Amino acid sequence: MADAASRLTALAKDLLGHPLPMRIRAWDGSEAGPPDAPVLVVRHRRALRRLLWRPGELGLARAWVAGELDVDGDLYEALDRLAGLIWERGADAKDAVHAVRDPRFRAAARGLLQLAGPWPPPPPPAEEVRRRSGPLHTKRRDKEAISHHYDVGNDFYELVLGPSMVYSCAYWSKDTTLEQAQADKLDLICRKLALKKGDRLLDVGCGWGSMAIHAAREYGARVVGVTLSTEQAAYARKRIADQGLTDLIEIRVQDYRDVKDGPYDAISSIGMAEHVGAARYREYADELYALLKPGGRLLNHQIARRPEKDEAAYHVDAFIDAYVFPDGELAPVGRTAAALEEAGFEVRDVEAIREHYGLTLRQWVANLEANWAEAQRLTSPGRARVWRLYMAACAVAFERNRIGVNQILAVRTPEDGTSGLPLRPRAWTETTS
């Protein structure tokens, strides 16, 4: 077992067909690889057994969450270097079969088995969502998925998100703070929706109440916010009471499919539609359309993936599904816009703000790292590691244009065709009178 790092570096090169773009530090203290690269720290041979049992993203994630893998150096640079191995899969099935049949590949696999130590592999970390059964995106299953992600603890989210308690992409300008960038995002949405005093706003997936509070306090809107998270709802209600806004805002623990008290003048859906699922997206669009009055506006703020050459080959990110957003699905922005139009909406504006999410995520990671000991105490060491990896990896994904985020403004245009939008809507300050 002497000089495990050199052996791992050589085996990785044979398995991948090219050198690993990282330096390796192994459990025996040895190091090998490019001297100027971030260091992949393999703390225990168990990490190799996880990778052999679940090659690729899920095996890496399990080893990371368990603390058997770490990075010494710039985490973003490390993820950027590993992106081609983990996410940007260029080889097709024929290439994979050819590699497996290559004698050098098979010899390297045997060497890795010897280095990994005795089987079987360890069980998945406790933070992993266990195998689920039954149809996707039923009300029960959605509630369980939301609870896994959002009922981690409000104190933990305060550490990560900061005072704004907004868990979606901020809207940045030069030299602004996270708090101001989130306030600017909420205000942008209110202006796009043309909110005014007395308007009824439905905030779907209301989180900790930040959008509801901003719309009521700054615009005089009467807001109903719905969430499936009991912890979010309790936190939002307290914030609302503390600000004296209980006469304008109602927070419900309710599925959006159970909201039946329309019509509303406007609907905001900010970072919620990612949970809906491809099979249910038309239902989501139909439900929101039915809840709007004629002339009412929907602002749909949603993460989007890039289209696949073969859409049938699309698969949900294994790490995200197992540890972060169970049952979450991303769709290309064109598919989202098409579903909204099929439901009857007129799509009037699409604003892509991809770069803003990279900036937001980096700030959340900085908040987490600055409060690392407290974050582990409030959740668990494994859960804190999940969040650090998830947010840093997503920052890289936005920066590399693997995923994007868009605000779609859609209108339930009445039969006479009057949308109510100004001729130059991008100013978002003009009145419609």
TrEMBL record:
Gene3D superfamilies: Vaccinia Virus protein VP39 (3.40.50.150). Residues 116-140 are annotated as: Disordered. It comes from the Bacteria. GO terms for molecular function: methyltransferase activity. Keywords: Lipid metabolism, Methyltransferase, S-adenosyl-L-methionine, Transferase. SMART domains: PKS_MT (SM00828). It is an enzyme of class 2 (transferase). GO terms for biological process: methylation. The keyword Repeat does not apply. Residues 156-396 form the Polyketide synthase-like methyltransferase domain. The keyword Cell membrane does not apply. Belongs to the CFA/CMAS family. This is Cyclopropane-fatty-acyl-phospholipid synthase family protein. The lineage of its organism: Bacteria, Bacillati, Actinomycetota, Actinomycetes, Kitasatosporales.
